[in-house]
Fold these 2 entries.
Entry 1:
Amino acid sequence: MSYNVCMISKVYISKSAYGVVKDYIEAMGHQLVVINGQNSMLPKAISCHSDIYLCKIGTDADSYVFHGDSKAPVAGYPSEAIFNASVTDNYFLHKLSITSPSLLEVARDMGKTLIDVPQGYTRCNALPLPGDRIITQDAGIYKRTKDFLSTLLIEPSPVLLPGYKNGFLPGCCGRVDDKIVFNGDLSRHNSFMEIIDFIDECGLEPVWFPELPLLDIGSIIQEVLP
């Protein structure tokens, strides 16, 4: 299926995302749903992160988006990470002991193979791409997935997340149509060339915004409207 022509969809994004990024996505013809941190029980830094509330079950632009159930995330680990899985074409990656039971049921129903990883904030640390590929700097995720997926292990590089020592590159971005949109300047990353080559190999186009520090906003999640 081709994604060169944009599909009308909702795109969930943090209120903390740069204005130029929001404008870019709206100019593509999509409806922005800005996450404003409506759950006051969560730490301020992550309360507006879409991957705390939602989980995209696949890597296609029109893959199904799971919306958190009645067991809403609450402050403190692991409760605030129960939906924070990373899902490729065939694999569901998460610390399975903490995963929301309803999310696990959906993953099984959709035929995903479950892989238990040591990092509960999995989507924050693993960007899923077509062809059962992921990008991560997390050594534990790399060790658990390298025999099943094509996993690019990248170097650590500065990513902002106010209130925390650092954020993570996968939390800066997400797929919108045939693009991987980054909230900030990807060219500042230590593994820049490896990352863009890896994305290009998937047939997708990386998009970034020069001169803006990479800022972890809890992923960008597209949901195609029926």
Entry 2:
Amino acid sequence: MSANNQASWFETWFDTPLYEKLYANRDMKEAEYLAELVFKHFPPALFPNVIDIACGRGRHSFNLAKLGYDVTGVDLSERAIQKANTLKQTFEFAGCIQFKEHDMRLKFEQDFDLAVNLFTSFGYLPDDEGNSSIFANISHSVKNNGALVVDFLNPGFVSASLKKKETRKSGEFTVLIERFIKDNAVHKQMRFIHSKTGEEQAFSERVKLYKLNWFEAEARKNGLSIIHTYGSYKGGEYLENSSPRMIMLFRKSE
């Protein structure tokens, strides 16, 4: 589902099998730590219904369901939702979770006690107006007195530690990765070269580098306020220039 006729980088990249290959070894322990951090502040007894916005293959949705939440995972990628539903078939708490396609550029049809947007699943559009509109949609998915958790990259850390070039092996592919910062966004360009045929495929990622004060301002516009910010999945203190993550906890007023 698309909000317009022009395909964006994330509409093609997230739906390709090469995306799964490149990120096949994501740290599941980090997902568990993050779910526990959410549980600590917003327990399911008080915030039972959760929407996991841009859920991907369901890594965080499954961890939240294990902790007792009733989870709805949504994602733009048809392939991701198909994979999540396949994984759900052998999931112990399958009755507590559902997955469906949704483009977060479009408003949500219902609201929830808790919304989560995790693992830098935001800032994909090149313009501030578009990203502001998406944040408003995310905010409107939260009930009054509800909560929102946004796990975003820390711009200060990215700027200080950017690895400009990298080569990886991903199955039968060699992946050449270049990163750079331009127009207040971090860009990642990837070239997949098949080891036998030499066939090459290219993809890119782009994320706007929004600082904490940008999120604070957007939150105020939408009836939310930040109650705490963490700098790591284990609950470390947030430090502007050295924390790897910017994990923001919001509450919505009446």
